[in-house]
Design goal:
Blueprint: E1 2-4, E2 7-9, H1 11-38, E3 45-59, E4 62-76, H2 97-126, E5 128-131, E6 137-140, H3 145-148, E7 156-160, E8 163-164, H4 170-176, E9 183-189, E10 192-198, E11 201-202, E12 209-210, E13 213-215, E14 217-220, H5 224-251, H6 261-274, H7 276-293, H8 302-315, H9 321-349, H10 352-363
Antiparallel strand pairs: 1-2, 3-4, 5-14, 6-13, 7-8, 7-9, 9-10, 11-12
Helix pairs in contact: 1-2, 1-6, 1-7, 2-5, 2-7, 2-8, 5-7, 6-7
């Protein structure tokens, strides 16, 4: 067990976190690599991990390597930058438009395939989490009013504002109807009853009051074919809801709630501690999110290459270098804004005061 700024992190959590991030990115790059080879493009290097090479070999014109930091991978092809493209049809940007489109799409597709495999395994061997209708709290969302009020998984909600609660179905309506107003919850824990006061937060997208709790769940195992079907539907639903939430935020000119690198690493580390099934589930969610993000028509990501390939097909003209440069600068600026905002959101969700105190105790400034 490691102690980092007061946080206890096991070696298993560290290994699984790095492996989880690495496998999602590596599978993505594997898709690009396989299709580039299929179309006869030159691949100079295909690596698992980043940083200094610790093992590798050269076969044909490609260097295959395992690098020291196993958090992903990359494919290096000549002519990936518009200024370095020489016109050789074996270079990426000099290849036919349909080849570039398929190679770019292969990465996100592989992320969806990985998610399908992971969710199928999860539903078949661990089962589908089915929400119980008992008024028992199964999940506490970090940073929400329920956590601040001291509620815990396993607590039973007896009443809300003196209204008796018989089932979980009654809870959302009672909470959402009191958005912004203080609620008085009667809780039973370990055969002891007590009252808790909570003020719900108003959800920006739905306008409903939320306190950050989820119901208790039970697992229901599925057959193999049923698991594949359910996994497919779940992936489509996740993609649709993500686009719907992002679209709603844009229309309403509201900042969407997204997780950045800190948040993702934190979630993976926590899921690794909760169990292998939770870890598999989260890696599947992240794989879908990465695949979907890379399909967005943002220059510099796969969706940007797909968009430019389609434009070239429609106009029947080769890419304009100046237009590509401008688009890439815009894409880079957008990606940096998303990265900074997501990182800021991660830090904002953290208990900054508590974190500073832990650092102070760790370095001996605070006792």
């Amino acid at each position: 067990m490691f102690h980092i700024f007061g946080y206890e992190i096991s070696i298993i959590q560290i290994v699984l976190t790095v492996f989880g991030i690495g496998i999602v990115i590596f599978i993505h790059e594997l898709g690009h690599f396989l299709l580039a080879k299929k179309f006869g493009l030159k691949v100079e290097k295909f690596a698992f991990g980043f940083g200094r090479e610790i093992f590798g070999f050269t076969r044909g014109e490609t260097r295959y390597s395992i690098n020291i930091f196993p958090a992903g991978g990359y494919v290096k092809m000549p002519g990936e930058d518009i200024d370095s493209a020489s016109g050789d049809p074996r270079e990426f940007l000099s290849a036919a438009w349909y080849k570039r489109l398929i190679i770019a799409a292969a990465g996100p597709v592989m992320n969806y395939v990985l998610a399908l495999v992971l969710f199928t395994v999860l539903f078949h061997y661990w089962g589908l989490p089915v929400a119980s209708n008992q008024p028992i709290i199964g999940e506490i969302i970090e940073g929400r009013p329920a956590q601040a009020a001291g509620l815990k998984p396993g607590d039973t909600i007896i009443s809300i504002n003196s209204s008796p609660v018989k089932s979980w179905d009654e809870i959302p309506a009672l909470i959402s109807s009191q958005s912004g107003q203080k609620l008085k919850l009667q809780i039973e824990r370990d055969n002891a009853k007590f009252f808790v006061s909570i003020t719900p937060l108003k959800d920006a997208s739905s306008g409903r009051g939320l306190i950050g709790i989820g119901p208790k769940t039970e697992s229901e195992k599925m057959g193999a074919l049923q698991s594949v079907e359910l996994s497919s539907k779940f992936i489509v639903f996740q993609s649709y809801m993500t686009l719907k939430v992002l679209g709603s935020a844009v229309i309403r000119r509201q900042a969407p709630e997204i997780a950045g690198p800190i948040g993702v690493i934190n979630l993976i580390a926590k899921s690794a501690k909760l169990g292998i099934d939770k870890f598999i589930y989260l890696i599947g969610i992240i794989s879908v999110a990465l695949g979907l993000f890379n399909l967005l028509p943002i220059p510099l990501v796969d969706g940007g290459h797909i968009m430019m390939s389609i434009i070239e097909f429609v106009t029947r003209r080769p890419l304009n270098k100046l237009a590509v440069r401008v688009a890439n600068y815009i894409g880079l600026a957008l990606i940096l804004v998303i990265f900074v905002y997501a990182t800021y959101s991660d830090i904002h969700r953290m208990d900054v005061t508590g974190f500073v105190l832990k650092i102070g105790r760790h370095v001996g400034l605070i006792k």
